[in-house]
Amino acid sequence: MYQDRKYCFIELRLIHFINNVTIKHKDGQHKEKIYTGKGIFIIVDLRNKNKINITISEDELWENLKISNDFIFAKVMRNPELCKGLLERLLDISIDHIEYPEEQKTIDIAKDSKSIRLDVYLKDGKGTVYNVEIQTTSNKNLPRRTRYYAGMIDLNEIEKGADYSGLPQSFVIFICTFDAFGKDRWKYTFQNVCMEDKKLFLNDGTVKVFFNTTGTKGRINKDAKNILKFIEGSAAEDNFTGKLAQEVIKIKENKEWQVEYMTLMMREREKYNEGRTEGRIEGRIEGVVSIYKEEMGLSFNETVSRIAVKFNLPLYEAEENVKKYWI
After folding, report:
1. How far apart are CA 73 and CA 120, in angstroms?
2. Overall pTM surpassing 0.90 (yes/no)
């Protein structure tokens, strides 16, 4: 049985005992139904022993996951042979060997800054840094995200003591299951270039690459096409994609990783719900500020004091909220 500090995932075919609390699967003999259909998973909150049902889509079921799922992709890339082979084929380069500083590396430069989690973060024998991400949802902010990731990678190296001249070559690679730029290309490579002289490159050591698994245009080697088509959902067409397919099967046979996946999903859903709650609270604060100011004619300081009491906030936080809506 798996458990972390907070959650325990219950396999529905089994009976487990947690701190003398019995969780049972429906079999006609038990009083309590805790499984009502495919796609329903049971998480036990170890803090208060509450059962939490999670409903997920068919595509998110463990047995249906493909390499396009970021969790599965990150696990596949922990195989150094496959990771090296994928990068060499996609980028059409030769790599001596790869090193794994961390899996799903989190970069958090300052305590009050926004941290980022990089799904696949690795280095080769020359010190080149590669960040590889699977993207399955179209988002107009993807280009700016690559800029942010590249900047954070540089700051992370500087934090270790490197100066500007020692910053490594870096690749931020997004493998997209959609066309991020609408040009039907398999591959989009971006480097900083002089607008007045297109042959003059800045040579700042950063490259951003977007791959499109639905592409039809552009020059790209056959091995790279086979990888992208496999990620899109096609059958393996060569020896390498066959190895990728076998690795996916192997990963899905690992029960600990299955539990890890479900636990991560639980945390993500919890964060999502917390975000929705915070959004509703912000909306209420905005409405109350408007009433205090417009209808009751209260001063700014009086409004801050009342908001602090009403929403149980410290004064500095209440003041920040009131400032946002004091128009």
Report:
1. 9
2. no
Residue with the bigger pLDDT between 157 and 69: it is 69
Question: Is the per-residue pLDDT at 22 higher than 60?
Answer: no
Where are the strands (E) in the chain, listed by range? 7-10, 16-18, 21-23, 40-45, 50-55, 98-107, 116-124, 129-135, 170-176, 187-190, 206-212
Residue by residue, what is the 3-state secondary structure of 132-148? EEEECCCCCCHHHHHHH
Instruction: Please compute, for residue 120, the number of CA atoms within 13 A of its CA located in the half-sphere on the CB side.
Output: 29
Question: Does pLDDT of 250 surpass 50?
Answer: yes
Q: Three-state DSSP class for 131?
A: strand
Measured at the CA of 242, the angle between CA 238 and CA 246, to 5 degrees, comes to: 175
Domain ranges of the chain: 7-55, 63-253, 278-325
Location of structure tokens 């390498």 = 240
C-alpha 160: how far from its chain's center? 25
